[in-house]
Amino acid sequence: NAGVTQTPKFRVLKTGQSMTLLCAQDMNHEYMYWYRQDPGMGLRLIHYSVGEGTTAKGEVPDGYNVSRLKKQNFLLGLESAAPSQTSVYFCASRGPANNQPQHFGDGTRLSIL
Amino acid sequence: AQSVTQLGSHVSVSEGALVLLRCNYSSSVPPYLFWYVQYPNQGLQLLLKYTSAATLVKGINGFEAEFKKSETSFHLTKPSAHMSDAAEYFCAVIFMNNNAGNMLTFGGGTRLMVKP
After folding, report:
1. Between β-strands A64-67 and A4-7, what pairing exists: parallel, antiparallel or unpaired?
2. What pLDDT, on the 0 to 100 scale, is given for residue A1?
3. What span, in angstroms and rounded, lies between the C-alpha atoms of B94 and A112?
4. B104 near A CB under 8 A
5. CA distance A54 to B75
6. What integer is the mean pLDDT of B81-102?
7. Residues A93, A27 contacting (CB under 8 angstroms)
8. Which has the closest alpha carbon to B76: B29, B7, B14, B15?
9. Res B98 pLDDT > 70
10. Cβ neighbours of A56 in B, within 8 Å
11. Which of B10, B37, B22, B16 is nearest to B81 (CA)?
12. How confident is the model over A50-95, as pLDDT tens digits?
C-alpha cells in the first residue's frame, strides 16, 4: 500500500535552474495538494487540484507551476529556482468528502544554492 | 483573516507526565479540525479528527482532543507521555466558508520533547 509517493526525496539546485517534483497517489483521490514546510510556519499551501485537468492557487503560489494531466499524478514545477524556495515540499491527497483527512507523502528536501 | 494558533513552539515533559498541546482557531463557524504528527524526516500522519460528531475525539497512540466551541479550541492531550511521542505536532483546520478546495490551514507546529 504505497499511498502517496514523492520523487525525488532530495535535490540540490543552483539559482536559476528548473526542476519538476512528482507526486503519485494510488488511492483514486480527486483532491491533491502541494505544500511547503518552513521552520515555525507549519505547512503552507502552494497549489491544489480538485480533479484531473484542474488546478488552483493556494496561499503561496508565486514561482511555482503545477499540472494534473492524470488523476493519480500532480506535478510541481520550479521554472527558475531561487534561494527562497529552499524548503521541504509535501504532497497530499484526499477523497471527495469534506471530513476526510489528507494523506501525505514523505516529502522532498530541496536546497537552492 | 481565519487562522490557527498553536501556543508554544516547543513543549517539554517528563516521561509519564501529562501531555497538553494547545490549538485555537479563529472562526465563527465551527470548522473541521485535525491533529497530525510528524516524526523526523517523515510526512504527516493523522492522529485524530473532529467533524461535528462527539466533541471528545480519541485518536491513535493514546491521544485525544476536545472540541470546545465557546473557546474556539481543540487541545490535544495524552495522560502519560512516552519517549516515542517525541515529534512535531500540527493542528490543522478546514474552515467552512469560502473554501472551494476544502483547503487545510495549519498552525505553526509544536515540537514535543520527552525527558527520561
Report:
1. unpaired
2. 60
3. 32
4. yes
5. 35
6. 87
7. yes
8. B7
9. no
10. 100-101
11. B16
12. 999 999 999 899 999 999 999 999 999 999 999 999 999 999 999 9
CB-facing half-sphere around the CA of A84: CA atoms within 13 A: 6
What cell was used for B97? Answer: 466558508
Decide if A40 and B108 are in contact by the 8 Å CB cutoff: yes
d(CA A108, CA A10): 5
Can you tell me the distance from the alpha carbon of A37 to that of A59, in angstroms, rounded to the nearest whole number? Answer: 13
Q: Which residue has the cell 490549538?
A: B23
CB pair distance less than 8 Å for A94 and B49: no
Beta bridge partners of B111: B10, B88
φ, ψ (nearest 5 deg) of residue B61: 60, 25
Whether the Cβ atoms of residue A99 and residue B51 lie closer than 8 Å to each other: yes
Are A21 and A35 in contact by the 8 Å Cβ rule? The answer is no
Number of neighbouring beta carbons within 10 Å of residue A108:
23
What pLDDT sits at residue A52?
94
- Taking CB atoms and an 8 Å limit, are A50 and B101 in contact across chains? yes
